[in-house]
Amino acid sequence: MIYQQIFKHVFAKMDPEQAHHLVYTGVSVVGKTPFVSGVIEGAIAPYLQQGPGVRVFGRRVPAPFGLAGGFDKTARAVRGLTMLGFGFVEIGTITAQPQPGNEKPRMWREISMGGLRNRMGFNNEGAEAAAVELARLRSSAKGRSIFVGVNIGKTKVTPAERAAEDYAFSARLLAPYADYLVVNVSSPNTPGLRDLQSVDALRPILQAVRSAANESTVDLGHPRVPLLVKIAPDLANEDIEAVAELALELGLDGVVAVNTTINHDLGPGGLSGKPELERGLEVVELLRTVLGPDPVIIGVGGISTASDARRYQQAGANLVQGYTGFIYDGPFWARKINRTLLGLTER
With 264 labelled, which of 50, 68, 138, 144 sits at a CA distance of 20 to 30 A? Predict the structure, then answer.
């Protein structure tokens, strides 16, 4: 209730991107203060250390509900986000080269429907900067214990015919620090990116990323990093099936479903939040039917409650993610969902 009043009277009156920067900075700073972050995590999310977690990719993930890509594009807030109760954090989207993203304004709240619309355009500091930050995170025992996904995308100025090379550059740098890699070909905010979801365009990208990731991990004696692809909800069902079949053909470890949708008439940008829930569930159920029981599915889109997350699990998702609900429901949102999913009683 307190957060709802803060959102109504403070954040809702701010530019959405300015509010995001304020929250992101605060979470980053507090998360990097060792004693304070430990005390806060102990109070908010003791289940991250004490609970059984869930088994995914042959590993323990502290809790099944994590933060989706889009919030942390520099890897500076990872510790602060787990401190707030997220079971894992997916950073990104990270591109091979730094880029400012699209011109402002590029983020809008759709409060009446519990949504968020953005056309950020992969604004980030580039793969080299992200690698430095991830190396710093992994230099401590606590940082190494956090389950981190790394979401990579195509640099805007890179032509489509060089997309595989662009993705491979990021994969080579970032794979050593990732618990899983996600190839993002489904954001609507980079021109031509979604065209890379076609099987013919996607195959060489995934092959290049797998090879590059192995060069900096397996070939040096380190464990193989799981590789997934993130798809859009706006694909036709037969195209979703084709991507799933390609994932099986190439031995991918899974699929992330879904990205933001352009199936709306609200203005520019992709829409996230509650309006995505039903289509997201449909896509996950279809993917599980095609993929079978073994590949991992990370379900994301429209989750605002533990009940929504449960529905994704029932549809076939191994892990679930959210982002927009964090904006509307505040710092204890992840804790509430994860405690419910783990069968713990809310205090």
Answer: 68
Q: Looking at the domain assignment, is residue 261 inside a domain?
A: yes
pLDDT digits (tens, 9 = 90+) for 168-197: 999 999 999 999 999 999 999 998 999 999
- 277 located within any domain: yes
Q: What is the pTM of this model?
A: 0.97
DSSP state of 61: E
Q: Are strands 148-153 and 89-95 parallel, antiparallel or unpaired?
A: parallel
Question: Is 346 part of any domain?
Answer: no
Amino acid found at 259: N
Does residue 187 carry a catalytic annotation? yes
Catalytic site residue from 28, 186, 187, 304? 187
Task: Give DSSP secondary structure letters for 192-208.
Answer: TGGGGGSHHHHHHHHHH
Question: What is the tally of structural domains in the chain?
Answer: 1
> Side chain identity at 210, as an amino acid letter?
R
Structural domain containing residue 172: 2-341
